[in-house]
Amino acid sequence: MVFSSLIFLFFFLPAVLFCYYIVPQNFIHVRNTVLLLFSLFFYFYGEPRLIGMLIFSILMNYLFGLSMRSTYREPLLILCVIANLSLLGVFKYLNFFISSADSLFGLGIPVPDIVMPIGISFYTFQALSYVIDVYRREVPPQHDPFSLALYVSMFPQLIAGPIVRYHDVNVQLAVRKHSFAQFSEGISRFLFGLSKKVLLSNVFAQIADGVFKYAPSELSAAGAWMGAIGYTLQIYFDFSGYSDMAIGLGKMFGFEFLENFNYPYISKSVTEFWRRWHISLSTWFRDYVYIPLGGNRCSPARHIFNLLAVWTLTGFWHGANWTFMAWGLYFGVLLILEKKFLAGWIARLPSVLQHLYALFFIVIGWVFFRSDSMGLAVQYLGSMFTSTVPLNRFVIEYLLRFWPYLLFGVVLSAPVFPRLKSTRIWRVLEFPVLAVLFTLCLMRLLASSYNPFIYFRF
Fold first, then answer.
1. Residue 136: HSE in the Cβ half-sphere, 13 Å Cα cutoff
2. pLDDT tens digits for 308-323?
3. CA separation, residue 269 to residues 233, 274, 306, 372 (Å)
């Protein structure tokens, strides 16, 4: 069940809101129970065979959290990390490692039929952050298993994030206020996220899928660039739209989740881009991997190693494919170059050139992310820069068909909405604008079944 589906909008969400708010506010534990039951149903609806995996992860980390006050907390933390990463490795990466070994060494090992649980990367990282925070004594262990279960499985952020850190919501699990203003803000945020997804991302997906279905050798340079730019816009409006919807849903239930995107395509460097893109994942790796490895408080060689290790892992977190590892390594190398050699040079460039520099390398990176194999990624990049194929006919067709969406995509990638929201006229325009956007989303959803969510596979 995705947030942009009719069954979610007209059945699940009204039902959970009704059952939640019919309970008096003083009975927060009952409200939490309602939210937990609906969250488990939400997951069961999409992954009925593997909901036991989610429950097992919750119970396992609940017990590990309690054990972080024991004498043997250090070895128990190591065991906790191994156990969580082992589950993630088996369900997400085992098939990849076996098939890679077979192709490299001709071992002939049969590849097991393992189905990856939806959202396992997100809820595993959330559970790990809880246990590590308890180990560091940043938060007390959660003695109520149902509260921890709600933290891990809360449906707004269960499937595709943002990765909510336990120390950011542990107080809210027990005490939180609900207000009409917060609820209204949540609806507004949800509808803007829904509009990003349905009205923009789905359109850019048509461009990207339409181009990437061709063999790279069939693409002109303009066609290849159109596909890469289409995917660049698709993944931003897909994932930031989902994060907006998750944050908005959280507000409807009294939770305040941290921002996950901060207009990353206005960045002037790759370093700045990663401060603005998927903030919850970047900060997770920073706090739980990069800093424990030594961060930048070490020798230059070790600092480079730390960056490469973290960004290779960041890429591999996204999926079991060499292309994701290459994508992470690619950005790791760019970050090292900027930090060690290019920062001063970039700062001296005119602002426009700084933006173009960052966008150029960001778009190149998304080609690795979108490609099915390293070979196709390299060939596609070759078409972008060296293709001798005549201009593809679809380039003109897509430009004539989709130019308004491309224009809106470029404009809305900048912080236009916050500026509009700060004006007095927005108080008058907000309701009619939201009503129109919701109507357009419903029309689009009723007219088409094409509604992909990129980050659901992670």
1. 12
2. 999 999 998 988 889 9
3. 18, 9, 20, 27
Selecting among 143, 278, 318, 355, the annotated active-site residue is: 318
Amino acid at 356: L
Contact 370, 363 (CB under 8 A): no
278 annotated active-site: no
For 300, the token pair is 């230059």
pLDDT value at residue 449: 66
What burial letters (b/e) apply to 86-122, b meaning 16+ CB within 10 Å?
A: ebbeebbbebbebeeeeeeeeeeeeeeeeebbbbbbb
What's CA 70's distance to the chain center, in Å?
Answer: 35
Averaged confidence pLDDT in the chain:
91
Cα 268 from Cα 261, distance rounded (Å): 16
Per-residue pLDDT tens over the stretch 93-117: 888 888 888 777 777 777 777 878 8
Q: How far is CA 76 from CA 83, 89, 257, 385, in A?
A: 10, 19, 29, 52
Burial of 308 (0-12, 13-18, 19+ CB in 10 A): middle
In the numeric block, the tokens 């390594």 are attached to: 329
Tell me how far apart the alpha carbons of residues 258 and 338 are, in angstroms, rounded to a whole number.
Answer: 27
316 touches 369 (CB < 8 A): no
